[in-house]
Amino acid sequence: MKVAITTLITNILVLSMLGIIANMSLPNGSFKRYSKFIINITMVTMILKSFLNINNEIWAGGNIGKGKTLEDIKAIESKGQAIDAMQKQQMEELFKKKIEHQITMQLNSVIQCEDIVATVRLENTAEYMYNIRDIHVKAKAPKTNSPIEIEFKKANENIDGIVDYLASIYNVPKDKIVIDIYR
Questions:
Q1: Would you list the domain boundaries of the chain?
Q2: What integer pLDDT is reported at residue 64 of this predicted model?
Q3: 42-79 burial, b if ≥16 CB within 10 A, otherwise e?
Q4: Which of 47, 49, 51, 137 is deepest in the core (most CB within 10 A)?
Q5: How far is it, in rounded angstroms, from Cα 56 to Cα 118?
Q6: How many CB atoms neighbour CB 120 within 10 A?
Q7: Are 137 and 118 in contact (CB under 8 A)?
Q8: Are 80 and 122 in contact (CB under 8 A)?
Q9: Assigned CATH topology for domain 94-182
């Protein structure tokens, strides 16, 4: 960087001296005017070129030599991977909550129980693709003094029918569907 600045100053001084010599040696007239113009244009382009080279050295060469750019790129890549993993996890949780809510609403329309809570476990089959591994439903039986009996809103429903229904909709084996009813 110091070399670039000293080179710039040296070039400006040489061009200034060349301009003074050309100005003194040329007679009055149009040649003098054109020589001043050409020397001034050359000086401006040299200053701009040197200024741009200094900036390029600061932005590109200085960081690459120290390895900061590669570290920055690696940091950005690792942050991107962390964001992707977080998004994947959030998508899975959102899908899981949506399925659990859907099962709860379906069971609320069939079973007359309180506090029906459905939980599912998912397995990742591909990127952003999930299968339901198992379904666990907990429901509180209506308050009565008799043994637990569940009233179904449809006349010919029973627990096995609900398990069959859930298995057919969500493509889950029947032995992976558990319905717990408690008081």
A1: 2-66, 94-182
A2: 46
A3: ebeebeeebeeeeeeeeeeeeeeeeeeeeeeeeeeeee
A4: 137
A5: 61
A6: 22
A7: yes
A8: no
A9: GMP Synthetase; Chain A, domain 3 (3.30.300)
Contact of 160 with 119, CB cutoff 8 Å = no
Structure tokens at 45: 């382009």
Tokens of 13: 């001084």
Name the band, by pLDDT with cuts 50, 70 and 90, for residue 54.
low
Three-class SS of the chain: CHHHHHHHHHHHHHHHHHHHHHHHHCCCCHHHHHHHHHHHHHHHHHHHHHHHHHHHHHHHHHHHHHCHHHHHHHHHHHHHHHHHHHHHHHHHHHHHHHHHHHHHHHHHCCECCEEEEEEEEEEEEECCEEEEEEEEEEEECCCCCCCCCCCECCCCCCHHHHHHHHHHHHCCCHHHEEEEEEC
Looking at residue 121, its pLDDT comes to 93
Strand order across the beta sheet in which 177-182 lies = 114-126, 129-140, 177-182
Taking only Cα atoms into account, the Rg of the chain, rounded to an integer number of angstroms, comes to 40
- Give the model's pLDDT for residue 59: 55
